[in-house]
Amino acid sequence: MEDALQLLSKYGDDAKVMAGGQSLIPLLKLRIASFPYVVNISGLKGLNQIVEKGDYLEIGSLTTISELEENDLVKEKYQALHEAAGLIADPLVRNMGTIGGNVSHGDPSNDIPAVIIALKAKLELAGLRGNRNVDADSFVTDSFTTVLEKGEILKRILIPIPGTNSGGCYIKHKKSAGDFSVAAVAVHLRLEDDERVKSAGIGLTSVAPKPLRAVRGESYLEGKKLTDSTVREAAKIVVSESNPSTDFYGSLEFKKKVLGRITEEAIHLSFERAMVR
Amino acid sequence: MSLVKIKTRINGKAIESEVEPRKLLVHFLREDLGLTGTHVGCDTSNCGACTVLINGRAVKSCTMLAVQADGNEITTIEGISRNGELHPLQKAFLEKHGLQCGYCTPGMLLTSLWLLKKNRNPSEEEIRKNLSGNLCRCTGYQSIVESIKYGAQLMKEKEEEQEMPVR
Q: How many CB pairs under 8 A join A and B?
């Protein structure tokens, strides 16, 4: 790690970190981006662990998407994360691509950021002057732009261990298998004993220049009992927070319509899952 | 550009080579080693014709640098037959017409071998999901799915045969 950080500091903007390379190599091949130096960190040891420690689930940034998808603990307790992992690209890409790369790339269409936003995760960044933590929802600042400074690497993702009566899901609407989404939403709910929403987390993919936290949708849900009409209203608020643009994946209006529908579905499903626990 | 030394194990054989750091794995396999069974299809990480196994896991060799393979075990389509005899999964593709033009076939076979290693008896849904990164423009996939099901059966039979005591 020390060596990688040294190289990154030394070459600054001339260097780019590569983990699995599943986003970076296509960009380099198409000459959309080029870097004199690519620093391959995939050989760093100890960064592919998934383990609950204290109050957090710790996921090393070099954990592949396949490892995430196949992990029993994630499958059982972090369903939104498990579902998102299984919907990223295709199985061959998931065998190489990493969770850290999916987040650090800063692509607003990448799926993991919305999930870790909904789960209120923290990101541990390593740098020569030591580590620092940032909240998942402030990590990506714009399209393909993150708070990572020169010479910093995303080291671990820390997800608060969900309390009792909580549940979540990830719903991704896509045009064809393996594609990016038209829109996607991650929801995580925690309920009071009387079934009112204690806390809500909502993260959105592909509907703004960056992965988005639907803050107003979250606070609308908190303290409420969920009925068809409150869920519909919450989805409407979430849609009003989004800012999609018309492109190959659909018109602005279409994306908002899709987002509204999958948000309703995701809140209902998360509620059901929180009740089962 | 200066060359980088890499050590790999390809189809069971230890290989030391010098490669340009920017060289893709698929070009290393095809051009440097002559293993042209690994195909370049779309060259944009969509079609899976270039699939190989790295330490048993199926990946796209067009979206990986040769230097990333350093220290790893690679299996290409040339490495799955034994003593001149086709692998049971290859036999199944032959018998069930799992190919027409054959361009996607090496990738289909290696992706399926990875699946069958994890799951000896996959359902049709599991087979189709697992193939979502491998495109075929000829067959419509039906005969590929059938080949894989039949291949799973042949592989099991072969295993049982080998486990039987020799008289």
A: 59
